[in-house]
Design a protein that fits this description.
Number of helices of chain B: 4
CATH class of the largest domain in chain A: Alpha Beta
CATH superfamily of the largest domain in chain A: FAD/NAD(P)-binding domain
Shape of chain A: globular
Number of domains of chain A: 3
Largest sheet of chain B: none
Helix content of chain A: 25-40%
Number of helices of chain A: 14
Largest sheet of chain A: 8 strands, mixed
Number of strands of chain B: 0
CATH architecture of the largest domain in chain A: 3-Layer(bba) Sandwich
Strand content of chain B: under 5%
Shape of chain B: globular
Distance between the termini of chain A: 22 Å
Order of helices and strands of chain B: HHHH
Oligomer: heterodimer
CATH topology of the largest domain in chain A: FAD/NAD(P)-binding domain
Strand content of chain A: 15-25%
Radius of gyration of chain A: 21 Å
Structural class of chain B: mainly alpha
């Protein structure tokens, strides 16, 4: 038995690619190491409560009937209706710095108005930047030159605080690079967050992932859970099989891997040469979830998502400490327009974190460090936001180490390598990559990555 | 298969890949992409559906023949004339 394609990883990109291939009767199998689907955007259960991981919100909201948007393309290609995603839009989100606040909604003109009120001397430059962004072809899969964002932004905007405020959400939600951002990534993120906006699916990631896995299986696709890929085997430079951790070898004509670029090359047998030149991603996060006994808005948390910096200048880099408490993201799931209120109040706090610092702690210190740094992050937060400590009925935290354990991504780097492989090709024939390291990020981006790599390499 | 059958097959495929579009009033001589919102990803789907349903391979250089309904019909009718609708 020989497959036409083996897909490694049952995250959004792998599932989406699988649906495309199964839709056209390709013999396809998705192999997933973990016992749950989802990869970097998944879910877990504690004390009978199901929590999303990865997902704060889905970016790229566009209404039903819009077909040319990223969400519209995704739905069309997977032949899933907009209603089936059960998307509930955000209310209002905010970028909050010590001296300034910019609120934004799913109507871009709202943000434009905020900028003109908060930064009246910058609005002309901002408008010109927006024009450049809207006319930029960020989805071109051909490798362009590496253009960084900061110099581009500085050519339009002279106030560094406004530049940092615009960077803050875009970096937190999709930047693998420290300090600056590739301009095409900036454009992707700007459009997906500010121009299109946030929503959440009713039922969370669990619902979306199962919708996709069910679709894949109903089209005849095969899904193997709890069995990772040990090696990707090639002969004369062309892939021919994968060896699994358990029960042997699967022969295949092609492999599409969502493990990450370096992670994929590290599995190749025989070894491939270009491994040492690859940049490995470093950016990771610690996240704490707080179930509270009230609606977050009754505790003074009325925004859908807040991107904050407690310092005038925002610094996006791997911290020297275990986490960086000077900036973060607050997400209140309750503050989305769900048809019915959620069962629990939920506040999530995300901070930049250092994989290296967490990874070297012995088990005992690791547990106490989680508690200590969660406390420090809250102390920093409560200097600007109301204290909710007395209302917490359940809490849990995960770190870069947790992310590495469940996703296999080196360094727990949630956005992968800063060097993206836009065309998905590797030095091995018929071995392609999709997902985080291909270059489309976020939930919609990952899904489109799977679709476009399947279309480009495996369907023609 | 008649010319009308072939036209119906294209309509069936379009209905599958663009479920929200009104395909009842398609003009045969105007580009499909100007009438309903189709992009290059959708054209790939048309080609893939032809392969799946009728085992017809449309090479990339011939994609231009699929730009209009009239083009589709004249390109595909010779390939499908001995086939039945049930495929």
């Amino acid at each position: 038995m020989r497959y036409e394609t083996i897909i490694i990883g049952a995250g959004l990109s792998g599932l989406a690619a699988g649906i495309r291939l199964a839709m056209f009767d390709k013999k396809v199998c998705i192999v997933e190491k973990h016992v749950e689907i989802g990869g970097l955007n998944s879910f877990y259960v504690r004390k009978k409560r199901r929590f999303d991981v990865g997902l704060h919100a889905m970016t790229n909201y566009s209404p039903k009937g819009v077909r040319s948007s990223p969400l519209g393309k995704l739905l069309k290609q997977l032949r899933i209706s907009h209603d089936d995603f059960r998307l509930c839009q955000q209310e209002v989100s905010e970028i909050r710095f010590p001296e300034n606040s910019l609120r934004f909604t799913n109507d871009f003109e709202f943000l434009r108005q905020e900028v003109s009120e908060q930064f009246p001397d910058q609005i002309d430059g901002f408008n010109k930047l927006v024009e450049k962004i809207l006319s930029f072809d960020e989805l071109n899969l051909n490798e362009g030159g590496c253009l960084l964002s900061r110099p581009v932004l500085e050519s339009f905007i002279s106030d560094p605080i406004l530049i940092d405020m615009l960077f803050c959400p875009l970096m937190y939600y999709g930047n693998a690079r420290e300090g600056d951002m590739d301009f095409y990534q900036f454009v992707i993120m700007f459009k997906s967050i500010f121009v299109e906006g946030f929503s959440k699916p009713q039922g969370g990631m669990y619902y979306i992932l199962n919708l996709m896995a069910d679709k894949f299986k109903s089209l005849g696709g095969e899904l193997r859970m709890g069995n990772g890929v040990k090696t990707i085997n090639s002969k004369e430079g062309t892939v021919y099989s994968v060896t699994l951790d358990k029960d042997g070898e699967l022969e295949t004509e092609a492999v599409l891997s969502s493990m990450g670029y370096v992670e994929t090359l590290s599995c190749c047998q025989p070894k491939v040469l270009d491994l040492e030149e690859c940049k490995i991603g470093q950016v990771s996060f610690m996240e704490s979830l707080f179930v509270v006994d009230k609606e977050p808005r009754d505790l003074g948390y009325d925004k859908s998502i807040v991107f904050f910096s407690t310092q005038p200048r925002f610094n996006y880099k791997v911290p020297g400490d275990l986490i960086d408490i000077s900036s973060g993201v607050l997400c209140c799931s309750n503050n989305f327009k769900f048809p019915e209120p959620l069962d629990d109040g939920l506040i999530r706090l995300t901070n930049l974190a250092s994989f290296g610092r967490w990874d070297c702690l012995p088990r005992k210190d690791y547990i106490s460090a989680k508690k200590e740094w969660r406390g420090r992050a809250l102390d920093a937060l409560f200097a600007f936001f109301p204290d909710f400590r007395d209302n917490v009925v359940f809490l849990d935290s995960f770190t870069p180490k947790t992310i590495k354990k469940y996703t296999g991504h080196i360094n727990g780097a949630v956005y992968g390598s800063p060097q993206k492989i836009k065309n998905g090709k590797t030095s091995v024939n018929n071995l392609y990559i999709c997902g985080t390291d291909q270059g489309f990020l976020g939930i919609i981006g990952a899904t489109l990555s799977g679709i476009s790599m399947a279309n480009l390499h495996l369907l023609k | 298969m008649t010319i009308e059958d072939v036209r119906q097959i294209i309509l069936n495929i379009l209905a599958d890949i663009a479920p929200d579009e009104d395909i009842s009033s398609i003009d045969d001589n105007t580009k499909l992409r100007d009438q309903i919102d189709l992009d290059s990803m959708d054209f790939l789907d048309i080609v893939m559906e032809l392969r799946k349903r009728f085992n017809i391979e449309v090479p990339e250089k011939d994609y231009e023949h699929l730009a209009t309904m009239a083009g589709c019909v004249s390109y595909l009718t010779p390939l499908l004339k001995d086939r039945s609708m049930a495929s």
